[in-house]
Task: inverse folding
């Protein structure tokens, strides 16, 4: 990583303080007060998706909400968005049951955060329900609450509703208002070691944000007592802003948790300020797959309402996108989405049929059925009934028949990601459920003539395996064409694209022409959403010997290389494309080999960095493949600090480190570490004291293999915990990466002890912020150290003995890695109203240019990205600011 800062500053006589500037400051203060008043509102529900109408009938966290649960909660999740009973309003509600771990109390639920100002006034409520046939346990209860936090995420005030339990009654919706004030200095145990609430001190009619407030949180919490069962439902949640400035809102986000997305549709959303505050285009940030694409956004609209589009989507790619926007008042809003463009890992679909659209009335079929969720459309399979032994063979009793109510085959909402055709038609997506062993379904169609591969969109539960056989139905027999197989599922709603394979495990090619009947027969454990035909591309190119391939960390290299070949076809000129970190580097490729086999080398891959690589290759028959990988080129020779090897004996450290060197060395509480123990946490396995440690199932580095040592990470690291790491650090400037695991949105800070090291009176300075969406408590990944804007990497200057500190964390940290950061020489000039920042570049390398107006405070903002070609490049900044600092990083 390469960094440099440059300052451009203009000072005029008018900036010298005098009486006139004091009057101007007073006028500015009055102007601020007027803006503040103009941005206030009354009785506006801030909650996104408060009635759970978005992403209905799916086993996912509802859009706009964030889930919380103890780290030992069941992996499959204890929640569902459904409409099986009559909602309070609309068509769906949120259902939750106990998180079920260790036979102790547990608290789980969902929440939303919003920017807030001191003095803002709120009211909050929600509706609750428990079903008589699945009654809440006698000691289980739920509540709604509103919390106010300061800039350091410190809890300032908390208000709660009365608790709801089965004693209020069943099969009826009850509204609960948030009216109970709590004393945040009086914690109350819930019996859950990971969740504490606070004592109620009295009743209020309004919830007032105290001094220091920066965030307000609306939260729903469900407490399961020990192993008592039952479930609870909530609907129509409300967080009304009665008075105060209104935070901005992101709406109309597309695509939203979807598959089969046409990349030409792009990404689009609206962001507006209901309070009328200005939203500058530069304050809208979009990060796609870890790359900041904000400089490529197309933004239109008024000062306080922006329409945003990004047209940089690639086909055959999965996207995780995070969006943030900040208004002129300083309030922020964020949103996230996951989607897959057509066609991830598969050729384009030629023909698609829904699993629930099986034959009816003894072989009757509809070639191009309409999508519908209600009766009345004769061109739809809704409500159709199959004939046993002719159209279907149903075994067992299916509890739900939502799509075909009078048919014995179970049809329920799929829970899969959205598809554009269903959204456009405004209908639900369905799956076959259950699909027990030896059950079968017939699909008769006038199939398009051709040779095809077949994919099933299938799922099975965590750890289960299953099969479905595809056959062609002849007058007297059936002929098996192949089998769909999943070995180890990820959940009943975690659908996968599964190829039909033959007995040798190869993709099976089937030939169809005109009317035929295909049959799917269950081998147990698989649920079907839909099936597709894709062109059987026998001459599809193959990719070999890709390096780095992302299969493991530490693939240290400055070269990307691979081989592609194609049987019976050639590779025309310019048919092999490579994109690195969002930049097309195809013109820098070195390609050798024969007409049908190409050896490809990109010699400018930056070592010691994380890269996103997209490779496409298309042969002379028009058949192509696309590979998208996230890889790292880090060296194991980088300086690393193990998280489990924090100081001992009051600031002592081991100079000649080796794996497990700190085994048995006792740290001193309050000097070497701080940890707030929680009930149920494991005993330290590696060191007898300190923050708990447990074996890390991360990639085993060379020195751990050499010593035959166990690699540990820290577990149960809490928000008030910290650990010190005194070392004789190498001299230089470094980018820092954490190798961390966790669950959900996790964060952690890196600080430096500036005085008092080895004593109980230590002062620290913040160096940076680690934050990422983590995917499992043993799923480790790289997390860069950035400023609080989470975009610009932070450079840390080290040399000699010093003490660093990991603090305020929700990650399971494994180790820190320090990557040398080499400088880039910048030159800045003024051209009219623009600042021109120039710097030398390397071929095929992407550079990001950042700016901020204060050298020591504030977050860096992306100005633009520049693609290097070996020449000096310039970035232009049109600004009226009297002062600007710049930083250039690569990649």
Result:
């Amino acid at each position: 990583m390469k960094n440099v800062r440059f300052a451009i500053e203009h000072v005029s006589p008018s900036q010298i303080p005098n009486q006139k500037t004091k009057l101007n400051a007073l006028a500015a203060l009055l102007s601020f007060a007027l803006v503040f008043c103009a941005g206030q509102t009354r009785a506006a529900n801030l909650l996104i998706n408060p009635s759970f109408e978005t992403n209905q009938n799916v086993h996912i966290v509802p859009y706009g909400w964030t889930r919380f649960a103890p780290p030992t909660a069941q992996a499959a999740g204890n929640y569902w968005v459904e409409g099986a009973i009559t909602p309070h309003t609309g068509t769906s509600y949120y259902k939750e049951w106990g998180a079920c771990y260790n036979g102790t109390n547990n608290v789980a639920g969902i929440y939303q955060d919003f920017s807030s100002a001191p003095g803002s006034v709120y009211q909050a409520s929600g509706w609750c329900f428990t079903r008589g046939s699945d009654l809440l346990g006698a000691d289980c209860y739920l509540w709604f609450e509103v919390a106010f936090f300061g800039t350091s995420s410190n809890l300032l005030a908390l208000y709660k509703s009365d608790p709801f339990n089965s004693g209020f009654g069943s099969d009826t919706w009850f509204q609960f208002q948030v009216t109970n004030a709590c004393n945040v200095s009086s914690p109350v145990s819930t019996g859950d070691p990971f969740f504490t609430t606070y004592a109620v001190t009295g009743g209020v009619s309004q919830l007032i944000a105290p001094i220091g407030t920066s965030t307000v949180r609306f939260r729903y919490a469900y407490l399961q007592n020990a192993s008592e069962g039952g479930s609870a439902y909530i609907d129509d949640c409300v967080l009304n802003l009665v008075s105060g400035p209104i935070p901005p809102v992101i709406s109309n986000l597309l695509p939203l948790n979807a598959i089969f997305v046409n990349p030409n549709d792009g990404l689009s959303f609206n962001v507006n300020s209901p309070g009328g505050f200005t939203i500058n285009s530069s304050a809208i940030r979009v990060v796609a797959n870890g790359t900041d694409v904000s400089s490529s956004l197309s933004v239109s609209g008024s000062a306080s309402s922006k329409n945003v589009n990004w047209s940089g989507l690639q086909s055959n790619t999965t996207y995780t996108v995070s969006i943030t926007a900040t208004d002129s008042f300083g309030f922020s809003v964020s949103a996230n989405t996951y989607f897959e463009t057509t066609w991830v890992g598969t050729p384009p679909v030629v023909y698609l049929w829904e699993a629930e659209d099986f034959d009816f009335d003894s072989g009757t079929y509809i070639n191009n059925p309409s999508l519908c969720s209600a009766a009345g459309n004769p061109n739809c399979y809704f409500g159709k009934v199959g004939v046993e032994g002719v159209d279907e063979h149903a075994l067992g009793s299916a509890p739900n028949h939502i799509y075909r109510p009078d048919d014995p085959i179970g049809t329920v909402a799929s829970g899969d990601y959205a598809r554009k055709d269903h959204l456009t038609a405004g209908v639900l997506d369905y799956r076959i459920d259950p699909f027990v062993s030896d059950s079968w379904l017939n699909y008769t169609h006038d199939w398009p003539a051709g040779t095809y591969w077949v994919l099933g969109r299938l799922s099975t539960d965590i750890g289960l395996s299953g099969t479905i056989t595809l056959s062609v139905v002849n007058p007297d027999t059936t002929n098996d064409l192949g089998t769909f197989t999943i070995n180890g599922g990820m959940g009943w709603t975690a659908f996968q694209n599964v190829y039909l394979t033959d007995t040798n495990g190869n993709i099976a090619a089937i030939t169809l022409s005109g009317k035929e009947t295909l049959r799917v027969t269950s081998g147990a454990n698989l649920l079907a959403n839909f099936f597709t035909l894709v062109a059987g591309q026998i001459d599809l190119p193959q990719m070999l010997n890709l390096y780095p391939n992302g299969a493991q960390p530490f693939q240290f290299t400055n070269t990307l290389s691979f081989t592609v070949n194609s049987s019976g076809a050639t590779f025309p000129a310019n048919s092999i494309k490579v994109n690195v970190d969002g930049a097309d580097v195809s013109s820098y490729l070195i390609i050798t080999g024969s007409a049908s086999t190409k050896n490809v080398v990109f010699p400018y891959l930056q070592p010691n960095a994380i890269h996103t690589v997209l490779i496409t290759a298309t042969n002379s028959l028009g058949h192509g493949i696309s590979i998208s990988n996230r890889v790292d080129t880090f060296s194991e020779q980088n300086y690393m600090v193990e998280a489990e090897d924090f100081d001992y004996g009051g600031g002592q450290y081991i100079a000649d480190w080796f794996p497990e060197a700190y085994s048995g060395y006792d740290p001193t509480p309050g000097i070497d570490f701080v940890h707030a123990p929680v009930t149920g946490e494991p005993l330290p396995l590696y060191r007898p004291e300190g923050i708990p440690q447990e074996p890390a199932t991360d990639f085993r580095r060379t020195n751990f293999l050499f010593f035959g040592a166990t690699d540990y990470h820290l577990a149960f690291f809490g928000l008030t915990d910290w650990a010190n790491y005194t070392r004789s650090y190498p001299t230089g400037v470094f980018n820092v990466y954490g190798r961390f695991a966790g669950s959900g949105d996790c964060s952690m800070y890196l600080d430096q002890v500036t005085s008092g090291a080895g004593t109980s009176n230590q002062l620290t300075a913040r160096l940076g912020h680690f934050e990422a969406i983590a995917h499992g408590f043993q799923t480790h990944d790289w997390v860069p150290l950035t400023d609080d804007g989470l975009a610009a990497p932070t450079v840390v200057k080290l040399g000699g003995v010093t003490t660093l500190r990991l603090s305020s964390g929700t990650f399971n940290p494994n180790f820190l890695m320090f990557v040398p950061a080499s400088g880039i020489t910048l030159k800045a000039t003024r051209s009219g109203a623009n600042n021109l920042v120039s710097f030398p570049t390397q071929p095929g390398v992407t550079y990001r240019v950042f700016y901020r107006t204060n050298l020591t405070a504030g977050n860096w903002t992306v100005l633009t990205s520049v693609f290097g070609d070996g020449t000096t490049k310039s970035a232009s900044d049109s600004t009226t600011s009297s002062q600007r600092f710049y930083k250039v990083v690569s990649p």
Remarks:
- The mean pLDDT is 88.
